[in-house]
Every structure is written in structure tokens, then in C-alpha cells.
Write a structure and sequence with these properties.
2 copies of one chain form a homodimer.
Chain A: H1 6-21, H2 28-35, H3 40-46, H4 49-77, H5 84-89, H6 92-101, H7 105-119, H8 123-146, H9 152-171, H10 173-184, H11 190-206, H12 211-214
Chain A binds a DNA duplex (18 and 18 nucleotides) through helix 3.
DNA sequence: GTCTATACAGGGATAGAC
DNA sequence: GTCTATCCCTGTATAGAC
């Protein structure tokens, strides 16, 4: 019965077009014609274009987030003191395993995440906290344990700085890779970018408090 | 002769609407009706919506970038070895002086910059390099002098990571400030955010090379 | 040169027939 | 569930008035 539902046909087409052209430059008419379904089907099944974008991301998140949650719990229950690099490195494996979900799944997901956060501002943030707040809390706890000297508010700001780093990098990933290839003769795959990001993020989050950052 | 030209009326209205609603969610009809000019005036004077966005930013950049260029040159000619925090701190004064250009100029400009980089992807990047490449080169040189152990390609990546941090933070500035106010009872103005950013960025950029970041 | 009115193609969303 | 026809809004282009 290998029957592909209308929903899945739409999701597959949308994902492909979003990743290559971006959300704003992909029309529902392009999506529905590639998926060979009626234009109104998107609004019937998903409600709106914004909700379609969320659904595309959801397919990945439903695989990734439980995996991360499990890793976070495991790290929390092991009593040892984890350093920040270890905590951040937890993301690597689950992210790369998205390649099993779909061809180039990791790249697709991270680009969608980047585009989603910047294009439909505010929308995704709410969605994320609403559905995966518990998992995020575990992560924040791990970071706090790794940086016991930082006040909670400082961790809040720095984690959002880090989110910006990741999201922006992934959204501009294609352009950055092209420049890197041209200027430095480097061929960096998504995995390489992740490995470059971790020490940068770890150092930024753990940076000591200075007079200027305390004064405000 | 305190006569406001059509161009200026459009720029003022556009700036206000862009900063509060974003580029995508602000229509030309909103802008022209607030500016009390004809719809076609935007295309007549600026060519397109994208070019209007650039012009709004240009008003600030034409003040900011020469100021920065001058500061960079001065720091380069002083023979002393500058640390990264000193180099990054150069941005603070010129940025805050934008408040003299316009009411809430700093906040306006940084929000526009954030939105510009994320909303109209690729466009602003080209514009920036084309018009202010010389100034950017000076900045990169200063960073290289402050981090003599880092290869140029690593600096390239980390500066783009940092750009992401800044741009994302400024684009989501309003949301972040609201959360900070609600969760931590903190009232953080744009100046406070800048002072929080600098140690984070400095630590991230200067982070030592690890095995994982060298391997790719 | 500047401004106005208007036309046009393409976008997302939706009511109602089937 | 699905499809057609339609609605209103967007950015852009242009003809013609001043």
C-alpha cells in the first residue's frame, strides 16, 4: 500500500523548494504544482503557509528533540562535572543522524531552522518553547552546571547570542561556504561548520564577567 | 526654507515602519500613505523597495562608517599591541553617536541592520562589501594582529559567526528585552546589550584552536 | 523633473460546489 | 477530502498631467 498521502506530497515538495529558494521566494503555487495537488490543499491540510513551514520543520524536530532529551537526561544523571564543550558536543551526533531521516537531512534541517527563525520572526520561537520547553530546560540546567559562576540572566543572554550565531550561520551557510571555497580553497561541509562552531560558542558562553558586562 | 523633500518624507516613514514591523510586513502603500505621497513616488525616487531599504540604511552608514574607518586607522597607526576587547570596543562610541543623527538612532540602525541581513539575504552583504570594503579590511587586520595565532580562514569563520550573533540579537532585540524584563526583572537598553556582547564576542573569536576545529 | 492615477501580474487565503 | 472560482493585497510599470 505504498501510498503517499497528499500531506506528505506537499511536505516533500515544500521542503525541497524551501531549502533551495527560501520561504519568501517559494510560492504555494510552485509547491502544489510540484506536488501535483490542488492549490487549496495547502490551506486545507496545514491552515496557512506559516503553518506549513512549521510542519516541515516538525518532521525533523520530532526525531531530533527526543534524541537530545535523552542525551541531556543521561548527562544530568551522570554525577560528573561536565564542561561546556562536552555539553555542546551532545548536539553533534543527533544532528548528523538526521542524514538517515532524509538525504542531506542535517543540512536541510539546519537551513530550514535558520531560515525559519529569521524569515518568520517570533512565530518559531513560540512554537519551540511551547513544544520542547522541558528539553530546553534540561539543556539550560546543564549549561548552568558547567558555568556555576554565571548568573542566570547572563546565561540567558549568552545562550541567545549563541542561538543567533547558529541560526545566522546556517541561514547564510551556502554563501559562506562559497566564499570560503573561493578565498581559502576550503571545502567545508556542514559537519565541518558544526565542529568550528563548538569552540567558538563554548568560549563565548563561558567568557568571564567583565566590568562592562556587570555594570548593566 | 525648512522644506522636507519627498525623498526625506519617504525615508522617515519607511525607517519608522521598517524598524517596528520589519521589511517584509511593511508595504509600500503603508509607507506612502504615512509619508503622504503618491505610491509611485517610491519607485520614481528609489527604483524599488529593495533600493529604498538600502537608502534608509545608507543614511546611517554614511555617518557611521567614516567614523569607524578613522578609529581603525588610528588604532592601526599606534604601534601598540591591541587586545581583541579593545578592538571591538571601538564600535561603541560611533554606534552610540548615531543617537545624535536621529532620535533612538542607535536602536533604529541596529534593528534595521539585523532585519536587513536576515530579510533581504545576500543583497546587503554585497552592498556592504562593495561600499565599505576598505574599512572592513582595516578591521580584519586589527583582529588578525590581536590574534596572531589564528589562521586567516579561522578568523573568516569566526567573524561571520560574530556577525550572526550581532545581527540576530539586534533583529530579535525587542523580544529579548521583553523576556529579560519579565524573567529577570532587568531593564536593558541597547547600550547594555552592546556591553554584554563585547566580552562574548571577544572570547569566541579568540578561542584557542582545538583538535576538532583544526581537523576540518 | 516631479507627481498622479491607474493597470497588471503574482501572492496567499477562502467560500461553496461536489 | 478535493477542486474551482474568486477576493483582496502586494510590488512594479507606465501614460499623462503639471
Amino acid at each position: 500500500m505504498n501510498k503517499t498521502t497528499t500531506q506528505d506530497k506537499i511536505l516533500d515538495a515544500a521542503e525541497q523548494l524551501f531549502a533551495s529558494t527560501g520561504f519568501a521566494d517559494t510560492s504555494l503555487r510552485q509547491i502544489t504544482s510540484m506536488a501535483q495537488v490542488n492549490l487549496a490543499a495547502v490551506n486545507y491540510h496545514f491552515g496557512s503557509k506559516k503553518e506549513l513551514i512549521q510542519s516541515v520543520l516538525q518532521r525533523y524536530l520530532s526525531v531530533l528533540m527526543p534524541r537530545l532529551d535523552q542525551e541531556f537526561s543521561q548527562l544530568l544523571s551522570s554525577q560528573k562535572q561536565n564542561d561546556l564543550t562536552a555539553v555542546l558536543s551532545v548536539f553533534i551526533k543527533p544532528l548528523l543522524e538526521l542524514n538517515k531521516v532524509q538525504h542531506h537531512g542535517t543540512r536541510m534541517f539546519l537551513q530550514l531552522l535558520g531560515r525559519g527563525y529569521t524569515d518568520v520572526q517570533g512565530h518559531l520561537r513560540w512554537f519551540f518553547n511551547h513544544h520542547y520547553g522541558r528539553t530546553l530546560d534540561k539543556f539550560v540546567l546543564l549549561v548552568q552546571q558547567a558555568c556555576p559562576d554565571l548568573p542566570a540572566s547572563e546565561i540567558f543572554w549568552r545562550l541567545h547570542f549563541s542561538l543567533g550565531t547558529v541560526v545566522f550561520t546556517m541561514a547564510s551557510n551556502q554563501a559562506l561556504q562559497e566564499i570560503a571555497a573561493a578565498d581559502f580553497n576550503e571545502n567545508v561541509e556542514i559537519e565541518g561548520v558544526i565542529h568550528r562552531l563548538i569552540p567558538y560558542l563554548a568560549a563565548g558562553i563561558a567568557s568571564p564577567l567583565t566590568l562592562s558586562s556587570q555594570a548593566h
